[in-house]
Amino acid sequence: MVLKDAYNRPVSNIRISLTPRCNLSCIYCHREGEDHPDAELSKEQVAEILRVAAKFGIRSVKFTGGEPLLRNDIIDIVRSVPPGMESSMTTNGIFLAKYAQDLKAAGMKRVNVSIDSINPETYKKITGFDKLDKVLEGMKAGIEAGLTPIKINMVVLEGINDHEIDDFLAYIRGNRNLVLQLIELMDFNSCEHHTKLDGLESSLASRSKQIITRRMHHRKKYCLDGAEVEVVRPRHNSEFCTFCNRLRVTSDGKLKPCLLRTDNHVDIRGKSGEELEELFRYAVSLREPFYK
Questions:
Q1: Predicted confidence band of residue 156 (pLDDT cuts 50, 70, 90)
Q2: 107 cis-preceded (ω within 30 degrees of 0)
């Protein structure tokens, strides 16, 4: 049984934040809208959420944080993903070299790695730490382990890293294991380095040999001379909402029907069985496009 909301949007993907903890201090971090999260979900609770998700036809899960590789039980959590459900992860990559092979052996398909600059000084300015070498080492290990294609998540920040897009394109060009994902800055905190991506996307389109429309949020993939680029624009974007197929879970156990809202969460901590299934149905019933 596939769950659909009142706008006939099926839910086929779930995103689970495993921890609010992080070993970086990025200037733009919105923490999935979690201001004061309670204790993290146990691995048993995550497994039960995944069981119910699979029962409702959800076929992919993305683990996020904070930084999910700070969880000591991360491999057990990945192993708990039901058969037929594809798993991936968004990580800052600092511990990826340590875990890449084990993640792949546990069943993980691929990873997204957050890298907002390939200039060490700019990377430190954005994240607060001089860890770029560890991230690049982790990405190399991810490729060797087969956690591919690796999507490089670059939050575009006006006046800080927006001039590096061509540098990133040069970095990934010719490597089919790497995809660049340019992400619009969210409005969840006081970071004011917003870059309008409309013009950027038009420029990418004019330079592309091929443009592919993805099912996820109906966003475009641009193919430019051996480099693949996607643009993620959640703000003021009706297509992002119209084609949304994702349900989120906060690190403290709340179903989050909409990325852009924090006022309609559904508490599922400690719930299981039929009670949890009913709460899934209720959360999906609350879904509506933020931008219409």
A1: very high
A2: no
Q: Does domain 13-285 have CATH number 3.40.50.720?
A: no
CA dihedral 153, 158, 164, 169 (to 10 degrees): 50
206 vs 286, residue with greater confidence:
286
pTM for the model stands at 0.94
The angle that helices 120-127 and 132-145 make with each other, rounded to 10 degrees, is: 100
Which bin fits 157, alpha (ψ -120 to 50), beta or left (φ > 0)? beta
Token pair of 246 as six digits: 């994702």
The whole-number pLDDT of residue 36 equals 55
Q: Is the Cβ–Cβ distance between 116 and 154 less than 8 Å? A: yes
Higher pLDDT, 37 or 170: 170
Q: What is the pLDDT of residue 212?
A: 86
Query: Crossing angle, helix 96-106 and helix 132-145, to 10 degrees?
Result: 20
Q: Where are the alpha helices (DSSP H) in 146-229?
A: 165-172, 197-207
Q: Give Cβ neighbours of residue 61 (< 8 Å, ≥ 6 apart).
A: 13, 14, 15, 16, 50, 53, 81, 85, 86, 87, 88
